[in-house]
Amino acid sequence: MLSDSTIIKHISRQPKRSAGYKQLVRELGLHGDERGELESRLEKLVSAGQLVQLNSDRYAVPQPAADRNLAAGRLTMHRDGFGFVIPNASSLSPTMKSRLVGEIFIPPHAIGNAMHGDQVLVDVIATRPDGRAEGRIVRSVVRQHPTVVGIFHYGSRNNYVQPIDSKITQEIVIPAGMELPGGNSSVSSETTVVNSETRQQRTSRPQRQSVHRVLGEEATCRADWNDLEGVVVDVEITDWPTPTQNPCGRVIEVLGREDDFGVDVEITIRKFHLPHHFPPATLEEAQDIPAIVPAAGLRHRRDFRALPIVTIDGETARDFDDAITVSHLANGNFELQVHIADVAQYVTTDSALDREARLRGTSVYFPDRAVPMLPLELSTDICSLRPQLDRLVLSCVMEIDHQGEIVGYELSEGVIRSAERMTYTDVNAVLEGDAVLRERYAPLVPTFELMRDLAMILNKKRQRRGSIDFDLPEPVIEFDEFGLMKSITRSERNIAHRLIEEFMLSANECVAQYLESKHIASLYRIHEKPDAKRVYDFEVIAATFGYSLGVGALPIQRVRFKSDRRAARGAGKQARTIEIPKDVHITPRMYQKLTEKIAGKPEERILSYLMLRSLKQARYSEENVGHFALAAPSYTHFTSPIRRYPDLIVHRILKEVLRERERSAGVLPAHMPEKPDHALETADSSGRIAQAFSPPLGRWDAGATPWSKRRDHAAQREPLAAPHGPISVDELHNIAEESSYSERRADEAERELMEWKKVKFMQDRVGEDFDGLITSVTKFGFFVELTDLFVEGLVPLNTLTDDYYTYHENTRQIIGQRSRKTYGLGQKIRVILDRIDPVEKKIQFAVLEEKLLPKRKRKKR
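^ that's the sequence the OP posted. Answer follows.
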């Protein structure tokens, strides 16, 4: 079977550790579709940095040359022309790994023909004592931007497109005849705003029409682009830049004017290269799936259809992938049932649906529309747990005591029929005592009350073990009946949100622990311990507010640069000393205690935001190292397979393990009894799964092994067998890397569009004044977040004209030299909306000076 490890091992055995595509086809004995799979795997390995593409046909295992310090990584450009490369660890020699810390700085003259986002090969020229390095780009290995979205302009010599992404600093030349889609300079009926329907109409054979749309109703097709000046277009790069020539390209889509309604979403989709057109084969597969569940498919499933199971989602949600119910058992414990849509039943391995879902990685949600991971035929219909319809699920049924400990759980395939499609607002109103809604949902009211009680118990258990909950509100954009923005408000989390969160967390932990106990290779959601440098930076700022995480004295390494020592020697001064923090003992409980201290204080939002920034970013991995923020030894994503590809992979693995267990016990039963014959899967006090009822799951409160010592404690146990399962570890590694990247890309796209929407909302309010809070202070100014509108903007240092102000790094304050007026974190301030940068799409505020009271004259004695 062809795998990534097979390809890498075969290339490693070749002379010079390199091989050509045709050579690999021949020596690996590949035929038919296997050749296409090889090509796809080679592209992914190069993109991941595990291989280097030497030319169009030849690939090599990364290895630094003896005479040069080479590293491979992704280039991030700055609008001023310089860039940074974050090196891939696999491309570094042991010597380079010990010397290099963080990013490699690339000065403008050393960029060469690379562009922002490219995977590049870097020659490291110099490394400083603190690990910072400078280099030059040897060449681009993988191009990140095959297409670029920008604004079209006519020029005296050449037409060109100015990229909207300011990090792409070069204009793209558009040769004559390439100004319109199709390569024709004359206007045709195909010069339109492209959506999924028009793309299908251009195919050579008739295709089925899909209900899927990315563009809203407002984005109507146009055929009158006689003048493209100032119009947003998407350009395919045909010639990459050289040191003396700009890149060239051809227009493949005309999106519309930048200020046209809905075009901002289309720009964001193309800027971040979000796949948004489902291929015809994918749509055909989705439309061929029967909507009715056949009776034969229910024989081995547990039947939950008679139970009061409900979905609870937002008012605008269309895909319902989780359903719940809670009841009391005879022994007084709670029974929590979490049922998740069985997407893996329909999206099978290596199908067209699977390949497209893996490419997308996740659904992307914008304020007024979404780019789904699966076609709407699946995401909002067949897989969605809609009320009063039979739906296939994977179920996690948990027995939970009154301390919130899971004393037993069962994982199985099932079938449900949701009783109601509930919203967070309605469930919260029922629990708050709304008489009308309590009468309307009278049969479900006792169930909702049990849900509330259990959620509070589970939340207290998480608090005991040290789980962090920042509870930071997020912005919500409200639209009027015409689709125009009318306000920006803060999202509110009520008890209904919290109970869903607690139930999903419990199910995710159970599934992760079950698969880990079986030594099954799987995907985990991991969150590593924060870096010492970030903890140190936070401690310095928190100290100015009188707070601390309680980490104690931080071990510091002091270094001096050779260049500083030489300069100081000649001037008779003392060389500058740089402090670099070493490893630090930090636990999630320290964060939790500080969040409790600052709750309700004026500085709560500032310090919560800074604490969040000090933590690492959660990601997917085939290796389980625990989840720091949740203080969980094992955690995965299982509860959202409609919108997240890793959840779908976990479903596939779990289904195969469950069916293998049934096959090993005999034959699959003709029907599934109300309670399966096998005992509930439980866990002992060490957190390992046992096959019968045994002591409860490990308690992560004050009497348990601290999270920070969990890995050391685990290392003293018997060595575990190598993980095995239906998906290889190498393949899981690739899926984890791809999914983590897709998630970051989606987050960046959602965040950027939200900022753009805020800017457009504030355009008509220039000159108005607002109350705000200083959220960040830098050497070039300070950022202010408006109290009521959740909008942030910069107050530049050069706009403070009443005094000469300087930035004090040690206190993170801007202080006036004469007046000693101070601007610092958490300070309330009154600002005026001064201007909006139309290019950078940034908001700029100015401080609204307080009116000075006239001074009283002194009386003469």
